[in-house]
Amino acid sequence: MIAPTKCQTSESITTSTAALIAVGKEFYQRNWVLGTSGNFSVLLNRDPFELLVTESGVHKGRLAPQNFLTVDSTAGVISGAGKPSAETLIHLSILAHRDAGCILHTHSVWSTFLTDLHSESDGLEIEGYEMLKGLSNVSTHEHSEWIPIVANSQNYYDLSLQTNEILNANPGIHAILLRRHGMYTWGKDILEAMRHVEVLEFLFEVMGRKQSCAGNSR
Amino acid sequence: MIAPTKCQTSESITTSTAALIAVGKEFYQRNWVLGTSGNFSVLLNRDPFELLVTESGVHKGRLAPQNFLTVDSTAGVISGAGKPSAETLIHLSILAHRDAGCILHTHSVWSTFLTDLHSESDGLEIEGYEMLKGLSNVSTHEHSEWIPIVANSQNYYDLSLQTNEILNANPGIHAILLRRHGMYTWGKDILEAMRHVEVLEFLFEVMGRKQSCAGNSR
Amino acid sequence: MIAPTKCQTSESITTSTAALIAVGKEFYQRNWVLGTSGNFSVLLNRDPFELLVTESGVHKGRLAPQNFLTVDSTAGVISGAGKPSAETLIHLSILAHRDAGCILHTHSVWSTFLTDLHSESDGLEIEGYEMLKGLSNVSTHEHSEWIPIVANSQNYYDLSLQTNEILNANPGIHAILLRRHGMYTWGKDILEAMRHVEVLEFLFEVMGRKQSCAGNSR
Amino acid sequence: MIAPTKCQTSESITTSTAALIAVGKEFYQRNWVLGTSGNFSVLLNRDPFELLVTESGVHKGRLAPQNFLTVDSTAGVISGAGKPSAETLIHLSILAHRDAGCILHTHSVWSTFLTDLHSESDGLEIEGYEMLKGLSNVSTHEHSEWIPIVANSQNYYDLSLQTNEILNANPGIHAILLRRHGMYTWGKDILEAMRHVEVLEFLFEVMGRKQSCAGNSR
């Protein structure tokens, strides 16, 4: 059902690595990958499956080419040293259900704050903002975007199963939030995934400021 | 009634393009054009009318010379590839009513937040701040600036008609806000338009913080 | 009574100009001199009196050597083109009462917000913060700093007279706030004045956030 | 009981100095060492004890090699001009109780705000955030981190005695807060200490925003 992602497969490891290093620097400046938080991947080839992914435990603002590995569809290492990101299973789950070429996981103050505030809710509804048009296939601010919130866990296999369910049940979503943890979003290529990060982090800040406001807190 | 804008017409496309690329980078750093939000234009010539405008759907922090087109007074493309910004009609409406040489549309968290908070109001009154003196023809902090808020729409023709009405009815205004969308401001040249953006975004943040404050929320 | 400022008088115009250009860039990045707000001066010589001061109406993030003038103790232009900052009289008033070598005027969101919030008060008391030790001659966090707030005005002669009175009445102060306008601070040289700006803007943000906080608003 | 820190002792003064200069620049951009706040140290050798530490009263965003000294375990100067940071005794206290190679003291708005807000409490509990996993030896977000808050003082000998007590009583902690002053954290090397700063400052911002929020203030 899902066609091979053509635009990405021809991108070499070198090009994608350089692009993700730049993404890391930009996101670090924006406070979206502090500490060793965050992880990124680019689908190099769908068949045979080969995914470029950041190494576990490294700083995303100071990535070097040796901080990248390639893995197969079962997270088995094809090339590179070190351990792939502990959350690679979530990346694989997204790629199994979406025709995506790049997955970016950020960990911002506002997404942490919002999912903490909505601690009883299983998602966040964002509606009526022009910025939503920056999401793929959204053409009006009247769009209502549902962003599921999943309870955080250190059992990544479990999280990947939940991701499967959520992606099956919500065909139109562009992102998933882990509570008090951060966001996963994706795009057909690195630029689209970055755009989704910018759009959603902007909206999280707007929502966060709105809900912090005394006269409007809900 | 409106005289040709002399200082701008002699600026070449190359110079204006380079200046708008720099504006985009600066505004991106300041979170005013995240995703693909925002659009910019410079009036190259009033008669015959020629407007330099950013391409639709591109990232304003990474503009390249090929992301600019020139259009005539009916938004018809004179030169350049791609589609001009979907909001070009609003730029044309402003230029038809103001002796401006540059129009900048930003999309900040604070303008989105404020127009969302004032969801029943048709404008924002800002009064008593020294920063207001950064607006052209304002010489005292005692100035009261009215910033009309227009309901957002995907019908840009409609928005341009509303812009016409607002500009006719409010001769002294320096900007227009679109609700949950962002701001349009203009100036006789790029530097003045940039100054207006900085002045107004500063004031939106002050107003936003003031109205978020428990003891002052309205 | 006030001795000539030795360390500054030997600094050439060129060196001081370059240093103030760098200050402007840094402060612009920090949102302290948006639009054309802010102005800076360095005392080149006390006798005969010669003050280097920024030109009126220019952007402080993009200062060039031609945006500086030198004036005498009556604000008369000694060298340079353009008009000296409209607020030069306040600089002169400070120099007449303090043994300062550099005066920096910033215009931040937090100082604007705070002086707006305390709209009935003639000053701000800041006490108990370690950061206060960054102010000259303050050696303990138990220090209580009084920062007078003056009503804003476009009559700079009047403001300079008020500045005289305040400086006479408050020998220990390090800064003066203009309501909904910004801060004046000074130091024996550029580095000390910059340090005072950083210290006070930090404290304004802490105070602003504290007073925005529902449980603590006053 | 505490083994010599091997990875650090081989780092030369030159390398560590260059690394701390870079830390200072990064932290200054992030507003964590404004004014002359903050101080940094690197353990060069445990036996004989030699600690590289920043000079007292210098700006951490503009450190130069001459702003560093080395001291022995009694804070006696081994090499370098000027005075070592006034808070060197606290660094020595931490090194006497922890197998650390680097100590970083930051002074942020959010840590100042939070310790001010919790003015009656002797510590801050942070629990349930994924970001906690960026702290050494923490492997789950379910971790609860206790961060002791010590009353600020200008008597550094006294503060170092309190630090001794706290470190003895709380074997698992990663940082200590001084009220209305800032944070001390440490790591086996500069990178780990920086990571701890990023992780904790992120969490302070989340906690600060949460507790500023009307619906959640405590």
From the spread of the alpha carbons, the general shape of chain A counts as: globular
Helix content of chain A: 25-40%
The count of β-strands of chain A is 9
Low-confidence stretches of chain A: 1-10
Approximate strand percentage of chain A: 15-25%
Overall mean pLDDT of chain A stands at 92
Instruction: Determine the N-to-C terminus distance of chain A.
Output: 41 Å
Tally of individual helices of chain A: 6
What spatial order of strands do you see in the largest sheet of chain A?
Answer: 4-3-2-1-5-9-8-7-6
Major β-sheet of chain A, in short? 9 strands, mixed
- Biggest interface, which chains? A-B, 24 and 25 residues
Provide the structure class of chain A. Answer: alpha+beta
What oligomeric state is this? homotetramer
Radius of gyration of chain A: 17 Å
SSE pattern of chain A, N- to C-terminal: HHEEEEHEHEEHEEH
Characterize the structure shown:
The structure is a homotetramer of 218-residue chains. In chain A, helix 3 (88-97) packs parallel to helix 5 and helix 4 crosses helix 6. Chain A is built from 6 helices and 9 strands, in the order H-H-E-E-E-E-H-E-H-E-E-H-E-E-H. The first copy, chain A, is globular. In chain A, 53% of the residues are buried. In chain A, strand 3 (68-71) and strand 4 (77-79) form a beta hairpin. Chain A has helices at 6-9, 13-29, 88-97, 109-117, 156-169, 190-212; strands at residues 39-46, 49-54, 68-71, 77-79, 102-106, 123-127, 144-150, 175-178, 182-187. Chain A has a 9-stranded mixed sheet with strand order 4-3-2-1-5-9-8-7-6, with helices on both faces. Chain A has 218 residues and is of the alpha+beta class. The C-D interface holds C 128-131, 134, 139-141, 191, 195, 198-199, 201-202, 205-206, 209-210, 212-216 and D 31, 34-37, 59, 107, 109, 112-113, 116-117, 152, 154, 178, 180-182, 208, 211-214, 217-218.
